[in-house]
Records
---
Amino acid sequence: MKSVKSTLLDRRSIRRYERESIDDSTMEFIYQAIRNTPTSYNGQQFSVIDVTDQPIKEKLYELIGQKQIKTCSHFMLFLADFHKITLAAKAKDVDMPEFTETADGIIVGVVDAALAMMSALTAAEASGLGTCCIGYARTAAPEQVNKVLGLPPHTFLVCGLAIGVPRETPDMKPKQPMHLTIHRNHYPSDTELMPLLQAYDDEISIYNRTRTGTQTTNDWVAHIVSYYREAMSYRILNALRRQGFDCRQ
């Protein structure tokens, strides 16, 4: 088992995996870590679908387009889930408010699912496994992915996590410096931020030009903004509405 420090500070995204299974005791540890995730109100507004069936992974790969989905040992899908509490409330004749039609309801579900994913990631990394978070699982083809997973109303996919035995050790990507990430007592002024942002943009450019493996000319600012521009074409709100999350307030 890796130390907490190594688990958190040496983590990197793994996209190439050995084709071997993960032992049951390790998976049980990951599952227990997920179960023990802190959640809003202890409502546990999340669920996880652990996909190990290769044909299903192949279907998801075709829809999402990330190769690690079909090569990892376990592809976990983390859901915001209000279906369970809705079902239980109905059985007890408890009036269920339209919480899923509020911004806070959606945020609660996303936060719970994201925390659960981090619990799984940390447990997997501590066990010597590799992981990769896959946001495209949410955005690439939400309607088709929902159908493959059989998602009921009042659930939606937040993110995917590939877990497996790593077949690579990629270079560590530079993260924003501490003073750009952690602020004391108040948010810094733009004058304070700009030199740090410019220096980080330059650092990412150098990393992308010199890293081991595929090298690019990407910077940080324009490259990330291009992802935002692409995401403007996603129709996530429509998909959320069809799952019972019609945000009105």
Note: The first strand starts at residue 46 and ends at 51.
---
Amino acid sequence: MKRWWLEMSKGFLLVLSGPSGVGKGTVCEALLKKRKDLVLSISATTRYKRLGEIDGESYFFYTEEDFGRMVENGEFLEHATVHEHKYGTPKKFVMDNVKKGEVVILEIDVQGAMQVKKEFDEAVFVMLLPPNMMELRNRIENRQTESEADINLRMKNALKELDFVTDYDYFVVNETVDKAVSDIDAIIEAEKHRVKRFKYVKEKVLGGKYV
């Protein structure tokens, strides 16, 4: 029989971030494949929709005017301008899913994560770390998409971002994707068993009234 009192009365937002090149996208993608109970946070943007992209699935596409109005109304958990286009995390999408008891995962950089923390400090924050800085540099170099100057800048920024690790709830070292996914999976399971996320644990379990 389904024990409905074990369903979370309120879900949570899992924020996954880390320096450029640490493997956030790869780990997040693998985690979503492993766990079917996660909801991926969908970003909003002002850039043009590309071939094959679907509004409300790939991104929420907005005009500059609409995006600006949403910023003024405080409708984003975080927002930033990247390469002349605006991006943001819509508060309503996240909050609606959290209220339904879902676990929403947001992959974002450290600066964005700190914005989210100011708006929604109840989120669970996980920083993905490289095994060491040399390995991080090797991963960036192996992408073969940046110049030497760009790589040096990314490494400099990475050192600054790693200073924020004490603002996070958990850290996970990305030695291998499988191990990192396993560690984050364990964090999700632990967070899903926090008593504060349930209404009926005391009444139904401790009271001995099983259903």
Note: The mean pLDDT is 89.
